[in-house]
Amino acid sequence: MMKIIVDCHGNDLGASVAVQGSLSAIRKYDDISVVLVGLEDEIKKILLTYDYDENRVEVYPASEIITNEESPTEAVKTKKDSSLCKAFEFLKLDKDAVGLVSCGSTGAVLTASFLKAGRIKGVSRPALCPILPTQNNGKVMLIDSGANVDCKPINLCHFALMASAYAKAFLGKENPSVALLNIGTEDKKGNEFSHECFKLLSKMPINFVGNMEARDFLSGKYDIVVADGFYGNILLKSVEGTVGFVLKELKTNIKQSFLSKIGALFMKRTFQNMKEKLNVSNHGGAAFLGVKKLVVKGHGAGDSLAFEQCIGQVRTLAKNNLCKVIESEISALGENFDE
Amino acid sequence: MMKIIVDCHGNDLGASVAVQGSLSAIRKYDDISVVLVGLEDEIKKILLTYDYDENRVEVYPASEIITNEESPTEAVKTKKDSSLCKAFEFLKLDKDAVGLVSCGSTGAVLTASFLKAGRIKGVSRPALCPILPTQNNGKVMLIDSGANVDCKPINLCHFALMASAYAKAFLGKENPSVALLNIGTEDKKGNEFSHECFKLLSKMPINFVGNMEARDFLSGKYDIVVADGFYGNILLKSVEGTVGFVLKELKTNIKQSFLSKIGALFMKRTFQNMKEKLNVSNHGGAAFLGVKKLVVKGHGAGDSLAFEQCIGQVRTLAKNNLCKVIESEISALGENFDE
Fold it and tell me: Which of A144, A183, A271 is the best residue to mutate to test the B interface, defined by the most B CB atoms within 10 Å of its own CB?
């Protein structure tokens, strides 16, 4: 039975939602068991309030918690007994452990994955790949969304390959389209870096469709958008910020008119649906691709559903051997694509 | 009397809105006259349909039009008799000509400004600076939004200085705050380029408040956001794209429920106001800063109001001698900030 490790701390809502989500996950999927890592007493206390299959739930104790306020590298190096570090320890030690879920500090999860899970041979830069909703109920993957801020073109080639394997394994896309984040769609657009990336990506065994504009990120035209982590992070965060801005504007405007207040009552449900859809954390966690084990980082504000989804995500990726697939595809690239 | 030159072609809605907007501008401001540059017969025909002060309207003939489909550099170099090139010709020849407005191809306007108006001494990279709406009815300026895609840190220092002068001249901000577009707010965040920019910007005679995240671009926390044109363009376009995405989602969601359709009827006006506010072109044109004459690029889809606003914008900047101010402030920076 596949074991999925859950870091129960570091998230905004604490261990309760982590445990609750894990238990719904084992109810939903009968081929997995979960390992809850964190403050033993707290977790066991929460478990007492639920009925569940005890053969499919382990508690692995930790005594510390890494917060968003700490320096990720320092925290991971010094807090050896933190829930995150212990989670990776278990992931490494147990042969049935297939992957890990955490909704804690992104920086810490990346650092720990890098240091404790290790990189897949040939991948010098593992990358973070979130999934966003697009028009017509589609999805788009963004890689790298911020793990690497000074990339070489070769890194983007690896990102593109890994995300293509990921899209196939998780979304079932047979031949996902990959576009390069740029400031225009013409082949010659952009800065020197984009020109080099374009050349190299064109030679990759992927469905590279050329340059794209940030304006079309959510249009549904592309399955995967590949970018240096610095650009990618700007794109991701501006989308989050702008969605929040528009919804706030809407609220303010509604408050200003009596008629529209009435209208808003009729639309309560619609607004709710929209918020749900636009909430990035409702589209699965971000996979950290290029490390030897499956790591899915859920949204820090995620609720129990977020944990359940992230666990289901790890399960799907494990069943499709994503890490092995990436390893073999990277090695198949040959010397020309070594860094 | 200040003469403001209007390129009447190259915009989506054609000469009619350019002429109409120019005439409303001279009605609104009694201290300016307009020079309408374009196809003489067409413009004169449009003028016949209006009552206006003929002493304050000149028509300067051109025989060609530069479109968005052409290569900007080639178009500006070969179409000598285009409305855009003739507009710059007039701007250069007439001592009363203070600035130019165009809603045509951005690339062509930038190229023509660069080649025909010339750079201000000490500014190696003129930059495009649009204005966006923020929360609490504020405004934020973004420089560079795409004119320069391979900047040196020194270029961003010039951008920051020019935008500060612009914010003072146009928005009346005495000490506008300037933030560096980055992937986090901490001083040490970002890539090598951001680190160098941060160091240099900290030494500038401006109100530099440090790094900012794309998420906070529309929060109203900052008056000016400075960025390499590549990052800036990604930020600007992702905001445009995301606003469009959210509004489309809203529409789709409303259509799906009978109740919310009713609600939408009550909110028609509110949605209209919101669209208006979120429409970038309703917040004035983008100023091209660093060239010797005032150049304001309006939105390609702009209506007559957009032209009127851009003309008013040039007028305000002219009254505040923006070009002279920028020239003296740049020279006052001294050698340390020469490229």
Answer: A183
